[in-house]
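Q: Convert this sequence to structure tokens.
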Amino acid sequence: MIEKVKNFIEKQKMINGGETVLAGVSGGADSVCLFYILKELSKEMGFDLQVVHINHMIREEAEHDAAFVESICKENGIKYYRRDVDIPRIYESTSLSEEEAGRVARYEAFEEIADSIQEETGKSVVIATAHNMNDQAETMLHNLFRGSRLKGLSGIKAEGSRGSHKLIRPILILMREEIEDYLNEKGIAWCKDATNDTDEYTRNRIRHNILPVAEREINVGAIKHAAEAAAYISEVDDFLDELAGKILEKSEFKENGDLYISCKAINEAHEIVRSRAIMGAIKLISPKIKDIQSYHIETIARLSESTEGSAKLDLPYGVKVTRSYDDLIFSKRSADAGEESDAEFTIDKDRLEESRKLEIDNPVLGKVRVSLLNYDFNNKIPCGEYTKWFDYDKISCTMSFRARKTGDVLAVGKGTKTLKKLMIDEKIPADMRDKVLVLADKEQVLWLPGYRISENYKVNESTKQVLAIEVTQLQIMKESNEHKAQKGE
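A:
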């Protein structure tokens, strides 16, 4: 098995020799296996192995796991780093799920330690994680069920990067079963995480309830085949990125930071490559892309194809796309123009459906409490300005609080009213309107907080689930009231 991993490392050119490999070791079977394999290969392949352990401070056994990892490092003469990260506190103070908060914190710690090692030794540092073939299959299926496209279906890549450091996954070709067989055969102990035995997390439900059935009742090699499919899709994904990159190579940054891309270059590309190039252009302007949806990309593509004069489109995170003559211009709106893009956020539907309750701190909205409730028509619907109920089953996509966009309308009575007209009618000052965040379901506006909700999402006798949102301190409206007071209104 060590030879198998070595061949994989060499084929993917993960390690060149002479560098430090910083391995993330949690104490679980996968990471312990990674530790002993890298230890065996370190002399042969000419690299220095060091270890980092992240204590997430979630489980009672966490201290035991940290001590275990420290002990195997000392026994084998491997330098050991430990970081304690209060994931429950991070989870409570952000809109991230506990799993996502843990992942982000882990990689931030890996990168920080890798930076310090590189600064101290002057050698390059490669970060190694213990993802295996089962993780690959679970990730691919999870993304498939969530509606991901090709990039999500490519699963976990064998190589990536964190800051200036290469990120590698040397045991991605090993099944979890062969990992445990190897450890048992060698008499090597590992720590068991009890949370892996529950169905609390989506990934665990796939692990316990879907993959075993697939292997037992469809094909004994189901996990292996799913992982291989993800690896193949990853190669296709890289090829499409390469084609899109050729379009971006022809783009031009102006002195003011605006990115110009020829409409002709965009329009002549295949639809898939065109979408990649557009997304790549957005990334060059703003590293945040989580709330960039497929309909944004499709709208930009139509913008490029249009011949009806100039046009523009506002995107999340302050990105603006303008068509001017034969070019698409990607630019970033400045904060001086009233842009509050950092305050925009998405409500994670998976996390909401699992926990039934979220609380988010936001610089514009203050505290936002989101709950998912079973509805009884006899229940009294709250009528406060900053507490609203919506028919959850009518919400088709990911919900987000975002700035208004050109063309936004709200369903009022039997018709609609533009947000611009509604804000004028409600006497929201002009210099405050671009700062107000609205709740939206893709292009559909559900709520202008402090004012009206859409008729299309109101609760009625057929409602089964209610999305309850409470904004406890609407900071932007406080500013608006202060503004009015200053004008004597």
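The chain has three domains: 2-219, 250-333, 342-486.
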